[in-house]
Every structure is written in structure tokens, then in C-alpha cells.
Amino acid sequence: MYTTPVKTKLLVRIKRLKRFSIIFxxxxxxxxxxxKVNYTxxxxxxxxxxxxxxxxFDNPEIMPRFGYSAGLGMEIPVKGTFFIxxxxxxxxxxxxxxxxxFYGAGTKGYDRYSVxxxxxxxxxxxxxxxxHVFLGPFADYCLGGTNQHKLEYFxxxxxxxxxxxxxxxxxxxxxxxDEIFPLERQFFLDAGIIxxxxxxxxxxxxxxxxxxxxxxxxxxxxxxxxxxxxxLFTRVFTLQLNVYL
Length: 245
Known about the structure:
The strands form 2 sheets. This protein has an 8-stranded antiparallel barrel with strand order 1-2-3-4-5-8-9-11. A two-stranded antiparallel ribbon has the order 7-10. It has a domain of 171 residues: Beta Barrel (Porin), CATH 2.40.160. By secondary structure, it is α+β, with helices and mostly antiparallel strands. Helices cover 18% and strands 57% of the residues. The protein is elongated, with a radius of gyration of 20 Å.
């Protein structure tokens, strides 16, 4: 099977991220296996935006939307002031495109995406009194989602559909992407860096974080020409409550 240079570069990045996560986890377990482990239940709200590099394209306006997350995790104290935190979360990243004039002059509409990921962050943090800062990588895999598609043409006709983003047939049929982007399927992997600050006491911690996606999530097409030309990267602000169990 032929592998494009872009795909090869992406696979190398993914392998490096996996290798770093595995090594970091093993070192943490071996070094801190006798330390007290604090288990947590987490709930959060988030606001997802998308960064694009569409310089030569009359692109639709990107509209951030609120989402949510919930999960379980653990914190391992290190010498009192440092800590390691790992979690498994279900995260809804929601965003939308204002497609006015995108499908032709005089058209109005939007595409509202609701995408569910399983999220694996691995963070290192530092505590100072009742406050803390943290930084680390994350890797997300898309479990599924929908696109609420609405389009009104200048002649009064309309097109409304709720599209399964994991179905390439549904994606092409309802969004008419064969006319614009010959797409095959949604791109399912997201990964990058998380940084944040927070407050903590003996019962809970409250965190405000910002994640920077480093992987292009634009849907795949046959040759990845459009994917390479119109990259999209997630930018997620999250307010998260972690309750110590």
C-alpha cells in the first residue's frame, strides 16, 4: 500500500506521542509506586474553537460551541509540591460553521458538529499553597458524533439533515461534499498539549485549562489534497472539577 509523505510524517508523530506517553507512564509507576495515590472523579464544561489556515478560500465562519466531559483519574504526589495526573475522560467537542453564501450566493445555513472523544491526558503539575499549574500531552480518539446540517437556498428550497460523521456515504450524500470536497470520512484522532492553572483543597480541585490540538482534524479525502490545503486544529478551553474519592 502506497503511503504519502504527509501520512508518513503523521504516523511518525503519533508513534512518538505514544512512545512518550508509555515511557512517562512506566517511569511514573516505577518511581512512585509507594506514594499515596489520590483517585478522582471529574466533570467539566468546555468551549471548542477551531484554528484554520484557510488563506485562499472563502471559508465559512467558525462558531465555537459549549461541550462537556466526565471521567476518572488519579493523582500521584511527588515530594509534596509536584504531582502526576492521568485521566480517562469522555469529552464532547462541539463546534459549528456558519455556511452563509458557502454553497452559493444567497444561501443561508450552518453545520453544527457534536463529536464524542475518549480522552487520555497525562499531566505534570506543581503546587504552591492552594494553587497549582500543570502541563502535559493528550491523545483523543473519536467515538462518533453528528452534524446537524441546515441549508436554505435563495429560491426558497431547504436541505436539513442530521448526519452521522462516521458514515462516509451519509457525509457525502447530505452535505453534497462531492461537489465541494470529495471526502471519505471524518479524521478520528486528535492530540496535542494541555496547560492550565487551578485551585485545590483536601476535597477537590478546580482547574481552568487550554488544550492546543497539533493534529489536523479535517476529514480525509482520496488523496488528502483538501485535507492538506484546509487544515483544522482544535482549541479547547475547559473548566473542570476534580473530586477526590
